Amino acid sequence: MYEILETFKNSGLHGTGWPVTTYAVVPASILGDKIIVQNSTVHAEKRLVQKLSQNIGKVEDLQNLTNLKIFLNYSPCADCADVIADFARDVRGKLQVHVVFASLYNIQRESCQKNCNHKLCDTVRHEENKEGLKLLLEAGVILKTFCAADWDELQATLGFNLENIVRERWDDGLDEDEVMEDDLWELLGEEIENVQRLNEMKEEWIEEQKEKWIEEETERRLSEIKEEWLDEKEDDWIEEETERRLDELIQKWLEERKDDWIESEVNFRWEENLWDPWDDDEDEDFREVEEAWEMEQEQIFMDNWEDDVREQYEGDVLREAKNEWEIEEEETFGNEWESELRGQHEDEVLCDVEAAWETEEQFKFEQIWENENRWLY
Ligand SMILES: [Zn+2]
Ligand SMILES: [Zn+2]
């Protein structure tokens, strides 16, 4: 491990001999344990991508856009850049690949121009290696040189206590990391800025989608709850209203029966001489007949005919009640929902919708951006 850290520290220091080993280090992540590979007959980056590709199944299961950081002591050569770019495209929308390197490999550095006029530094592959880095940026890879936080993460990954690492150049005393960062910006500043702009656009776009989705989804869920509530109200109201109207009709029908019955009973009593001849209070006789209706006859009519009457009117009454619901009541209840009940549900629904955005939807939109929109710009 000590060897690895030293190699990172010594790579690319201007004016010194460079280590021959390339390491690729990936810190532990939800994809698995840390990975460390070095070059053999095959470049370290290619071996790393082979290893990462074995875990591609885990990538499929990811529920959030996840950062994958690759630490290199040298920036990748054109061939390796190609391989990493392919990998980055394969995992697009699931993994955000970062490549962090301690030095620019086989590339003309702007600082070098002034310093040694490229006499000390091997730059024969400058053009193709530069194109390789561009390719990585185009594939959505985030490229950067080491900063203090990266040294900390590398040390932690390798199991070291954190030390403040400053790489001082022997020839001019400058901080190599700072010079390296400036050189990368000289080399690819415009392209890196484009990527940053693209990332800002993505954030803005996601924010817009979030607002829109949350508003629409909240509205959709609230109207679902409203529909359910209205359906329940509709059933109850129509049942009660039908019952009420039927009772009214039966009452009316009974009134008619009562008048008919009393008339015929009075006639009957007259004909049969059932009136008490000594009693001249006719009102009392009528009251007796009425009482007889109330005590007995009314119930007899109800028992014998109520079901028939109900059956006869039920269909019409139900139709009328439904009609009445549609014309008038549905809207009345709808207004009641909007003015009183909506507010009671709003907070809870919004809370659920926001949680749904976090756990699921944001990721879907991030993928849409990565797979479709990014390439439009
Ligand atoms: Zn390579
Ligand atoms: Zn130089």
UniProtKB/TrEMBL annotation:
Superkingdom, taxonomy of origin: Eukaryota
Q: Name one Pfam family in it.
A: APOBEC4
Alphabetized PROSITE patterns for the sequence: CYT_DCMP_DEAMINASES_1
Listed name of the protein: CMP/dCMP-type deaminase domain-containing protein
Which species is the source of this protein? Batillaria attramentaria
